[in-house]
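Sanity check

After download, print the first record. It should look like this:
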Amino acid sequence: MEKDLKEVKDYYQQNYFHDEIANRIKDRVQQQIQPKRINWWRRLFYFSGAAVAAFGVFVVLAFFSPAVAEVAAKVPFLNMIFKSQPISDVILTTLTEKGYKVDGIGVRYEPKKVMSVRLQGTEEEVNKDKPEVKKIVKDLLLSRGFDAYGVRVEASQFTPPVLSEEEQKIEELNKQVFDVVSNVLKSYGNEEPIGLANKTIEINLPNTETKKDEIKQKIQSQLAEKGLGTFTVNAVVYNVKKREREMRWSDIITTIADGMFSSKKYKVIGVGYTNRSAEFMQITISTSVSSKDADYEEVTDRIEDTIREFLTSKETKEIIKDDAYKVFIRSKDKKERVITR
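Expected structure tokens:
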């Protein structure tokens, strides 16, 4: 597969990639990453932002160019998704560049799989733009083989909430509490998310932390000193090794879910995972086929082959390392096929 990916890259660079595109991609990537911190659950495989963006452009071009599509067809389906920009980002960028004011993009899986696009504007304005926007989004989805989604375009109904004076005071208090707790945790080298509800603060600490009680007491004392009130502090302890494994698997699982949900041929209605076991990572893929259906073997074989191909590819193996895993392919009547390592 490495040879095929190199062929894709060479073909793309020779026929489509030039300085203007490179600079445009670079500027866009810089705009996207400059204002915000990179979160731990984002992609951990070390492609540059521009490279990922360029591959996303390549995927879109594959839909419109038979020559590019022929080269792209050599790249396994899940690997293609894994190396590309998220489809929602591509849709947002494309529509924005065409002058549409997008207020939100989301996916709904029930009762049907739908890619939903919300546009700013009146009902009349959005209804006028709807046919063209639906076509653009549908074409972008099909450019990746995402043929399982319907497309819905609607006017945004969002209106900023108006807070009462009392709600504003609570919000300001919560902000001050969060600042105090965050600063204490940072002083111990911890920047985990914080929970706050009903005078109870929930913090996340690694199982390697030896000063749990000291941290809790320091939070309570500093809140009291600043006159912010008395709070109960609960510490949720997480397993460092399991967390590290989950971080590495995050985009692997997202890619599997994106691919399985997005193509009709897999007939998938659910993808879930659990990281509870110390021995292995577990992924469950639920299908709409029964073990008694005529196409049961064909569908489950297709899912198994696709998953095996992805999990044994060089790119994926570099991320999951020596982790053991179990992938359950579950039929509608609960029959299971298991992929193990």
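If your output differs, re-run the checksum step. Summary of this record's structure: The two ends are 21 Å apart (CA to CA).
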